[in-house]
Every structure is written in structure tokens, then in C-alpha cells.
């Protein structure tokens, strides 16, 4: 009898989860996205005000604006590799489907936070430790592990881009962002390949004579506390660290690429810091919930010198000119909402296919193109204080031709800046 009761209970719980997933999927994809209904019911069901804020995003066919070059058409789908290409496309579709299923079966559960927090309480009671999605580094710092990746696609992609840029007299620099686990960390019993992946890629770039800047080494050389450069509950580095990285990159370009950037512009004392106390629970913190992670401070940073910049995000229909504050999406810090608002996303409106910044106070004519992941969201706006033009491409959202974009916009240098956990398809620069 007890077995029947337990079985019935499990079936009821599974049924509730299934109904909640279907309800949220219908609400999000039909009521919100198609019918544009945004009321108390949809907000209660979705419980993601951050998502509802993003309804103004426009869909742009970047491949139509920047079509792939004719000379690359054969490269994109070689005849001899047609089968491999189809397999790769199929795998990509499966991965995207897995991502959607995972999203709907985790984030899309009604009362998800209640269930996740309840599960964490049970784990605490049983004495279970954090899993691979949340590794305890001590001192309140938690991180995610990075899987082992083949350095070949990254090295090949950067070599191809380097060969394309050289005849155009456009420089290339690969910047290796650090992971939360430093090269000096010795953590027994975990399999993290962030530093091994970075070492393998940079070694391959060295043999191909492709310039690179390893920020991990700079951190060691300057004797910085590696962990404190990152948010405790998130995989990203702090905005203050992004400002530091801007200075390091600018100094490198001055020394190796003929730039004359005033690095004093990046001195921390030339900025004011608007601190939001206990306002931020990072992506890893949200996974383990407030039961195991404590909220932390975060800051929006402004130059004391008045800025004059034009800021464009085509996907948001944003085309504005003003002070440094134009780069911020203040809705992400408008209220303290640990599970639904992401203060890090206030910088440059989070991740976008294309962002352009024109600094009207730096009339040097220099243009820098960043090809980036989310770590650069807190680098590009500060770096833009030192040069006249900064463009930013994110290949997770930009599906057009990078080479076509470069030919049309003619940057002085292309900076590819990634953290060690990016997928290999981020190195397809065709």
C-alpha cells in the first residue's frame, strides 16, 4: 500500500511539473511573443520580468546585411565535406533543441525557486556538497567547471582570419580572458580544463605567429588576487576588472600596434562607482539559491570626465548620443530581484549581435573591432574612452559574414577576446 502511495505521489509531482512547463511555454511563446499580452497573469506565470522587458528586441537578418563573400561560399560547405557539414548542422540543431528543452524543464517551471530552494535544503540536511555546476573555491567563491576542448578549431579559425586581415593591413590580436580558477590554483578532485584549454590554444597560436595577449599571465605578473577579480556567485569578472583589462589592452596596442591611447584615462581614480549593495546574485548563485549563496555588491562605473558618445544597438533600435550613461540598461538594476534581474546585463544591454560606439572626444580616427563573449560587456565601453570608434560583434547572435563586415567597416585592428569556455563555433570568422 505504501508503495502505491509513493508511486501516486511521484506521478502527481511529475504531472504538476509537466503541466507547469506547458503552461509557461504557451504563455511565453503564444500569449507574450505572438499576442503581446503583458498583464498580471502572464507576469505571474512566467515570473521573469527581465524576459518581458526584452519584447522590444527586433529581428535582424544579419546574413542579408552582410552576406558571406563569394570566395568563402565554397569554404562554408565544401563538396568533399558535405556529409560532415550536414552532420554538424544536425548536431547543432540537436544542441539548440537540448538547450530549449533544458530551459523549459528547469527555468520554466512554475514556482521553480520554491522547488529549487527546497531541494537545496534537503541536500544541506543530507550533507551533500555542491556539484560540477557549482564548485566551492572557498571564501564564498563558487564557480563552474570548463570541459576539455580541442584547440584545433580555434587555432584554425584565427589563422584563417589572420590570413584574411594581413593583405588589408588590419591587425589581429587574440586576448585570452581568465577563468575563475587561476593558473596557480590547485583544487583536488575536480576536472576543470579552463587553463589547459587556454594553454593549448595559445601554444597553437604561437606556432602560427598569431599575436595574443594572455591576461592570466598579466594577473600573475601584477600580483593580483585572482578570485577577487570575479563576482563570488557568478562566472563573470567584475566591472572593475573590465576597466583594468581595458588599460592592459590599450597598453599592448600602444606597444605593438602603433596606437597612442592615453592609458591614464583608465586609472580607477578617474571614475566614480555607483555601488548597489547586496544587489546581485550571479548565475551560479541562482543555481544553488540564496540557501547556499549570499548576495553581493555590484557597481555601475562612470568616468568623472564628461563623455560624449554615440551609441548604437540595431537589435534594440537604439541610436543615441550623450554621456557615458547611454551604455547602461538601468532596468536591470531598477529593483533588487535576485532571481529575475541580472545587474551585469545593465552593461551594454547584455549580449547583442552588434554594438557601435563613437567617442566624439577622441578624434584619432582609430577603429577597433571586438569579437567577443559576455566578458567584453564590461570592457568595450571603457576601452571606447580611449579611441574614436569601437565596434562589437557577438557571434552567438550575429549570423552574417564577419569578413564582409570587416571589409565594409575597415577597422584598424580586430581583437578576438574570449574566455576559456567558449564553443568552437565562436571561432568561425567567415
Sequence-ordered SSE layout with sheet pairings:
Blueprint: H1 2-32, H2 40-46, H3 49-53, H4 62-65, H5 70-76, H6 82-106, H7 112-126, E1 135-138, E2 141-143, H8 151-165, E3 171-176, H9 194-207, E4 212-214, H10 215-221, H11 239-256, E5 271-280, H12 283-292, E6 296-303, E7 309-313, E8 318-322, E9 354-359, E10 367-372, H13 380-383, E11 389-393, H14 402-409, E12 413-418
Parallel strand pairs: 3-4, 3-12, 10-11, 10-12
Antiparallel strand pairs: 1-2, 5-6, 7-8, 7-9, 9-11
Give a short overview.
The chain has 430 residues and is of the alpha/beta class. It contains 14 helices and twelve strands.
Strand order of the largest sheet: 4-3-12-10-11-9-7-8
* SSE topology string: HHHHHHHEEHEHEHHEHEEEEEHEHE
Q: Over all CA atoms, what is the radius of gyration? A: 23 Å
- List how many beta strands DSSP finds: 12
Number of helices: 14
Shape: globular
Helical fraction = 25-40%
> How does the helix and strand content classify structurally?
alpha/beta
The first-to-last residue Cα distance is 64 Å
- Major sheet description: 8 strands, mixed
Q: Describe it for me?
A:
- This protein is 40% helix and 16% strand.
- Residues 48-52 and 74-100 have low confidence and may be disordered.
- It contains 14 helices and 12 strands.
- The chain has helices spanning 2-32, 40-46, 49-53, 62-65, 70-76, 82-106, 112-126, 151-165, 194-207, 215-221, 239-256, 283-292, 380-383, 402-409; strands at 135-138, 141-143, 171-176, 212-214, 271-280, 296-303, 309-313, 318-322, 354-359, 367-372, 389-393, 413-418.
- The chain has a domain at 137-427.
- It is globular.
- The strands form 3 sheets. Strands 4-3-12-10-11-9-7-8 form an 8-stranded mixed beta sheet. A two-stranded antiparallel ribbon has the order 1-2.
- With 430 residues, the protein is an alpha/beta fold.
Amino acid at each position: 500500500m505504501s508503495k502505491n502511495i509513493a508511486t501516486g505521489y511521484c506521478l502527481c509531482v511529475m504531472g504538476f511539473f509537466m503541466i507547469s512547463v506547458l503552461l509557461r511555454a504557451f504563455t511565453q511563446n503564444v500569449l507574450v511573443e505572438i499576442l503581446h499580452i503583458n498583464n498580471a497573469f502572464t507576469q505571474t506565470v512566467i515570473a521573469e520580468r527581465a524576459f518581458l522587458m526584452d519584447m522590444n528586441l527586433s529581428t535582424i537578418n544579419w546574413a542579408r546585411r552582410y552576406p558571406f563573400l563569394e570566395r568563402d561560399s565554397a569554404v562554408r560547405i565544401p563538396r568533399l565535406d558535405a556529409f560532415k557539414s550536414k552532420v554538424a548542422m544536425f548536431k547543432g540543431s540537436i544542441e539548440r533543441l537540448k538547450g530549449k528543452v533544458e530551459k523549459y524543464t528547469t527555468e520554466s517551471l512554475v514556482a521553480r525557486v520554491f522547488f529549487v530552494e527546497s531541494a537545496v535544503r534537503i541536500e544541506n540536511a543530507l550533507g551533500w556538497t555542491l556539484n560540477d555546476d557549482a564548485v566551492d573555491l572557498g571564501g564564498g567563491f563558487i564557480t563552474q567547471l570548463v570541459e576539455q576542448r580541442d584547440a584545433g578549431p580555434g587555432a584554425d579559425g584565427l589563422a584563417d582570419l589572420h590570413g584574411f586581415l594581413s593583405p588589408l593591413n588590419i591587425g589581429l590580436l587574440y586576448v585570452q580572458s581568465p577563468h575563475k580558477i587561476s593558473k596557480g590554483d590547485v583544487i583536488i578532485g575536480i576536472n576543470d580544463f579552463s587553463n589547459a584549454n587556454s594553454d593549448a590554444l595559445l601554444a597553437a597560436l604561437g606556432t602560427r605567429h598569431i599575436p595574443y595577449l594572455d591576461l592570466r599571465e598579466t594577473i600573475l605578473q601584477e600580483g593580483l588576487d585572482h578570485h577577487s577579480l570575479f563576482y563570488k556567485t557568478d562566472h563573470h569578472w567584475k566591472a572593475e576588472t573590465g576597466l583594468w583589462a581595458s588599460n592592459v589592452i590599450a597598453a599592448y596596442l600602444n606597444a605593438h600596434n602603433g596606437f597612442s591611447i592615453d592609458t591614464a584615462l583608465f586609472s580607477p581614480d578617474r571614475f566614480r562607482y555607483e555601488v548597489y549593495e547586496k544587489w546581485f546574485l550571479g548565475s551560479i548563485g541562482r543555481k544553488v539559491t540564496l540557501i547556499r549563496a549570499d548576495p553581493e555588491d555590484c557597481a555601475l562605473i562612470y568616468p568623472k570626465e564628461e563623455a560624449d558618445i554615440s551609441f548604437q544597438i540595431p537589435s534594440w533600435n537604439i541610436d543615441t548620443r550623450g554621456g557615458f550613461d547611454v551604455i547602461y540598461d538601468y532596468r536591470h538594476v531598477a529593483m533588487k530581484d535576485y532571481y529575475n534581474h541580472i545587474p551585469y546585463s545593465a552593461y551594454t544591454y547584455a549580449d547583442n549581435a552588434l554594438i557601435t560606439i563613437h567617442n566624439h572626444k577622441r578624434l584619432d580616427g582609430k577603429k577597433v573591432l571586438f569579437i567577443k563573449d559576455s566578458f567584453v560587456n564590461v570592457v568595450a565601453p571603457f576601452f571606447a574612452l580611449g579611441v574614436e570608434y569601437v565596434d562589437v560583434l557577438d557571434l552567438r547572435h550575429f549570423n552574417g559574414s564577419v569578413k564582409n563586415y570587416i571589409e565594409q567597416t575597415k577597422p584598424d585592428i580586430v581583437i578576438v577576446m574570449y574566455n576559456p569556455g567558449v564553443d568552437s563555433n565562436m571561432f568561425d570568422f567567415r
